[in-house]
Design a protein that fits this description.
heterodimer; A: 333 residues; alpha/beta; 6-stranded mixed β-sheet; 5-stranded mixed β-sheet; 7 helices; 13 strands; B: 121 residues; 4-stranded mixed β-sheet; 8 strands; 34% strand; globular
């Protein structure tokens, strides 16, 4: 997509460098969620911000769901003073899908400071979603102050330990893991012994051809340990999933999309509905990134479509939504 | 008062003087206020505690202020000696150190953020 005059600020009412068009674009970007589709045991994911460009015929499969992440309800700083609006925008995009997804996954940092009113706002907005079934895993912001007590009361029904659980939908096994409890000084995300034991047991009886989708807040692959973007004991968790032909890992936390393929496992991180964070090591710290409207398109230039070929050599194929037949083999890391 | 007690009081006095001198050497601003422990500031900026190591005398109060636009916490490594609530932008947390020693602490939301307070006798 080329930069043209439309991208430039034309009316700057508040003298803040943002015109209405720019703000809407900002919302389109920050409000991004991910639409996931399983076709023939293969998971494809599409950025919701470009879903309108997709042929509805392509969007049918055995199962579809949408991932939203890092709504940080309560955040009100310059990087996004209106996280309510951008979260609503993400839900509206889900509602606009030609086929309603089976359920929604929220991969954590629902709230910014684990305040009751922040969770209330998210719950209220989610009521406007056409899809009523929402599965959550907590982010470290949701566990602030009470080690997750409130989170578990609200979202942890039927879960084990600090909130982990699994469920099956149309032949796909989903596992929600918690890696934000009891973080140690200098450390990364942690799953812990009890949860790992549970995971081993949970997947033991599944046949190797069962597609498995694991979701957790902090990435289960080492993206940038200097900023805490990884999970100390994720290798153990992945070892239990090694025998499966198709494993997809969905994470949040880093407020940007990234993909990686390792053996039969495809890793994805989702964008935040609230604010962007810098690319690993590209800033002094992982603090919220203030993005000029004209840069947003560049930030959108990441993989939108992914195919995971179960049983065979797993590949991510990146197709631009504006040209669905144009597929390229890709491996970012 | 017997001779031994006078001697021990003298030793204690010398020790005390030594301590005040050591503190004054590290923090000249506090040289004349030894009777009243002064607050010592740690800034949280850009996901960093600054200074990373702060040395204070026993009884001093250390005050942290979060200047980031993301919340942080101030939590001792043992998670029990001191533990702030989540500090939003410009929120502060204070703790008075009554015992000498080295106190390692971190941000429990961003555990890569680590620092320490050294408390001298």
């Amino acid at each position: 997509m080329s930069h043209n005059k439309k991208d430039e600020i034309q009316v700057d009412h508040n003298h803040d460098g943002i015109d209405r068009r720019g703000f809407l674009k900002c919302m389109a970007w920050a409000g991004t969620g991910t639409f996931c589709l399983i076709q023939g045991g293969v998971l494809k994911s599409y950025s919701l911000s470009r879903i309108g460009e997709l042929d509805p015929a392509q969007m049918k499969g055995e199962l579809s769901f949408a991932q939203i992440s890092d709504s940080h309800m309560g955040f009100n700083k310059a990087a996004n003073p209106d996280v309510v609006a951008t979260f609503k925008a993400a839900i509206e995009k889900i509602n606009a899908l030609p086929h309603a997804p089976e359920f929604l996954l929220h991969t954590g940092d629902i709230s910014h400071l684990a305040k009751p009113e922040e969770f209330d706002t998210v719950d209220q907005i989610l009521k406007s979603a056409v899809t009523k079934d929402v599965f959550f895993v907590p982010g470290e912001h949701d566990f602030v102050g009470d080690d997750g007590k409130q989170y578990l009361e609200r979202y942890g029904k039927g879960s084990k330990g600090s909130g982990w659980y699994s469920f099956d939908k149309k032949g796909v096994h989903f596992v929600g893991l918690v890696n934000v409890l009891d973080l140690k000084a200098g450390g990364l995300g942690t799953l812990g012994h009890d949860q790992l034991e549970w995971l081993e047991d949970d997947v033991k009886s599944l046949s190797a051809s069962t597609p498995v989708v694991v979701f957790a807040h902090i990435p289960l692959w080492s993206i940038y340990p200097d900023w805490g973007w990884g999970t100390e004991d994720s290798a153990q968790a992945l070892a239990y999933l090694k025998r499966f032909g198709s494993v997809t890992v969905l994470n949040g936390h880093i407020h940007q999309t990234m993909q990686k393929v390792e053996g039969n496992v495809t890793f994805h991180t989702a964008a935040s509905t609230a604010f962007p964070q810098p690319q690993p090591g590209k800033a002094d710290s992982p603090g919220p990134m203030k993005v000029p409207a004209e840069q947003l398109r560049n930030l959108l230039g990441v993989t939108d479509v992914n195919f995971v070929r179960g049983k065979h050599a797993v590949a991510i194929v990146d197709s631009k939504l504006s040209g669905a037949n144009e597929a390229t083999q890709q491996s970012n890391y | 008062m017997d001779r031994n007690r006078i001697l021990s009081n003298c030793i204690a006095g010398v020790c005390l003087a030594g301590m005040v001198f050591a503190v004054a050497g590290r923090n000249p601003a506090r040289a004349n206020t030894s009777s009243e422990p002064a607050a010592t500031e740690v800034k949280i900026d850009n996901f960093t505690f600054a200074p990373g190591t702060i040395t204070v005398a026993k009884g001093a109060t250390v005050k942290w202020t979060n200047h980031d636009d993301i919340p942080h916490t101030v939590v001792s490594d043992d998670k029990s000696t001191f533990k702030s609530k989540a500090l939003d932008t410009d929120d502060k947390f204070s703790y008075t150190f009554d015992k000498a020693g080295t106190y390692n602490y971190f941000c429990s939301i961003h555990p890569k953020m680590t620092a320490k307070v050294v408390v001298t006798e």
